[in-house]
Amino acid sequence: MTATRTLILLRHGRSEWNELNLFTGWVDVRLNAQGEKEARRGGELLAESGILPDVLHTSLLSRAIQTANIALDAADRLWIPVTRSWRLNERHYGALQGKDKAQTLEEFGPEQFQLWRRSFDVPPPVLDDESEFSQVNDVRYAGIDGEVPRTESLKLVIDRLLPYWESAIVPDLEAGKTVLVTAHGNSLRGLVKHLEGISDDDIAELNIPTGIPLVYELDENNVPTGPGRYLDPEAAAAGAAAVAAQGKK
Ligand SMILES: O=C(O)[C@@H](CO)OP(=O)(O)O
């Protein structure tokens, strides 16, 4: 029997802007108190299930970094090596960054809202470089191998994510390491789409809850041997339903 490889995906805990119901994207907001609690619980779930990461990959956004640190502290794994990449960042939400989701839904209607939020290849309008929510002059992206996005569809997220998956994450998995990836709702939707071979249409229905580890066992071709498994399935189902309903309250 060939040994399987273990991959853990963790969406950051609730952020200040999740709380305010604002489109966030690349805006670098922090976790709120509930998000910190979720991150701790995420780490406890890892410890309780004995699925302990050997290496960590995070985005360059503080909410993912904070989540990883808190979770790893709870699992007594703060010491593991870490690599961070903009390629794991949240989807850039273009001109929607900083906008209220409920107001956007009301202004543009459910069809356009869903198209911007969950379609595969329709990006929101581009964000002006002069906007306070633009990242074009953010020093952390000064050296990236590409242009700082002004907007992204899920397709564009997958296009910039997969080279990192292949060049940085897969080698760790192939070295037999248990890999933790701490990232975002839409960058993780992109990775799950790739792993599970979800169609461009069906991916619209997938929502990832905050703070609950999602574990995959992968074969020697890095294909999942079964569906991903949330370490707290009940909380995950409730969390995913809440994400799907955002804007409607
Ligand atoms: O605002 C965002 O950046 C994302 C994740 O919080 O939201 P949505 O779930 O609407 O894609």
UniProtKB/TrEMBL annotation:
GO biological process, one term: glycolytic process
Residue positions binding substrate: 11-18, 24-25, 63, 90-93, 101, 117-118, 185-186
EC class of the enzyme, as a word: isomerase
Gene3D superfamilies: Phosphoglycerate mutase-like
Active site: 12 (tele-phosphohistidine intermediate), 90 (proton donor/acceptor)
Alphabetical UniProt keywords: Gluconeogenesis, Glycolysis, Isomerase
InterPro entries reported in the protein's UniProt record: His_Pase_superF_clade-1 (IPR013078), His_PPase_superfam (IPR029033), Phosphogly_mut1 (IPR005952)
Top-level taxon of the source organism: Bacteria
Annotated site, Transition state stabilizer, chain positions: 184
Enzyme Commission numbers on file: 5.4.2.11
Isomerase listed as a keyword: yes
Catalytic activity: (2R)-2-phosphoglycerate = (2R)-3-phosphoglycerate
GO molecular-function terms, A-Z: phosphoglycerate mutase activity
Pathway: Carbohydrate degradation; glycolysis; pyruvate from D-glyceraldehyde 3-phosphate: step 3/5
PANTHER family: PHOSPHOGLYCERATE MUTASE
Family membership: Belongs to the phosphoglycerate mutase family. BPG-dependent PGAM subfamily.
Role of this protein: Catalyzes the interconversion of 2-phosphoglycerate and 3-phosphoglycerate.
Protein name: 2,3-bisphosphoglycerate-dependent phosphoglycerate mutase
